[in-house]
Amino acid sequence: MNASADLLKELRIDRKGAPPPRNLRGLWIALAVIVVLLLVAGAAWAFFTRDKGVEVRTAPVLAIGGSGSASASVLDASGYVVARRIATVSSKITGRVREVLIEEGQAVKEGQVMATLDPIDADAERSLANAQLGAARSQADSVQAQLREAEANATRLSTLVRQQLVSKSQYDQAVSQRDSLRAQLVTAQRNARVASERLRISDIGVDNTIVRAPFAGVVTAKAAQPGEIVSPLSAGGGFTRTGIGTIVDMDSLEIEVDVGEAYIGRVQPKMPVEATLNAYPDWKIPAEVITIIPTADRGKATVKVRIAIKQKDPRIVPDMGVNVSFLEADKPATAQAPPRGVRVPAAAIVKRDGGDVAFVVAGDDQDSAEQRGVKLGRTLGNDREVSSGLSAGETVVLDPPAELQDSGRIRIAGDGVSKN
């Protein structure tokens, strides 16, 4: 009985003991993952739903007044860089090219050899002329020797005829022979001079097989190769070259622009000009009007204007597109003259509530635009003079959209600030 009672006590449930431990680590990990996902979702929602601002283009505000002198554009035009001194160099004779000594972009000096032609024919002509000169000189020497003998004979016979030792006819014959040899000597000497001139011409023919640069410049085109036939004239159809290469004198570069007839009165000789190459829009090149060509193009109703480039630079090459601004003459500012303000692109000025305003880029991150009222002055080409409301060095918004308001958020498009 006691054993059975002990076994029943062992089967009894002890409700006063501690509950078995549970594994809470998985629960905490699940809660952490849920919190992270909620944070990521919230950040993504904030990023995609936030106000990114209006996309705009901008330009700097430039100073045009104050002390010193200032110039304003009175007319804008476009044209091209041209060379006043350019030559396609060819040979003076027709011949086969033996060697070409130039390449595109190479600088050459005046008289430098650019190419040589096959000199076989020219050398043969020179050899023949040299031989003819030798023969003519030999003949002249022979006649001169005969003349010396004839003169001595005539002198001797003149003494004998006075002594009546020889006949007068014998003396006359000696004199005649002497005079004949004198004439032959003159002819032989002239033949020798003609042969000498022919040799000199043959030397020129040999020199013509060498093509030299007529002036210092830069090679812009190489037109012939060894083995080709070149000729100063168009001969032999399409298989004959008419030039060795093209040389441009880079010091003779200038600008040619077409100005409309209605505006040509604004342009004067010696007028200052500011040129901007299409390839380098941030580079302002000082220039000056050379002359106005006194003829008009009736088809385009334009007049051509030549402009000198005052700043020489290897970046300026022929046929480059260029925009020019004709500037009014510099006028010294007096001590009493008020500041002339700043200049901004005309596209930066808009009408808001009946007034002229501009939007200035503001904020540490340049992500907002501040609306400012401005007082306008003169029209300076594509720009406007602003006498108050803006300061030099600030950045304004170009073509502000209607939805842009004061302190509105903006995004600068493209490469940021447009150089003006």
Summarize the helices and strands and which ones pair or pack.
Blueprint: H1 2-10, H2 25-49, E1 54-60, E2 62-63, E3 69-70, E4 73-83, E5 86-89, E6 95-100, E7 107-108, E8 113-117, H3 120-162, H4 168-207, E9 210-212, E10 217-222, E11 229-230, E12 240-241, E13 245-248, E14 253-260, E15 272-277, E16 285-297, E17 302-309, E18 321-327, E19 331-332, E20 342-345, E21 350-352, E22 355-362, E23 368-373, E24 375-380, E25 383-388, E26 395-398, E27 408-417
Parallel strand pairs: 1-27, 11-12
Antiparallel strand pairs: 1-26, 2-20, 3-19, 4-14, 4-18, 5-13, 6-8, 6-11, 7-10, 8-9, 10-13, 14-17, 15-16, 15-18, 16-17, 20-25, 21-22, 22-23, 23-27, 24-25
Helix pairs in contact: 3-4
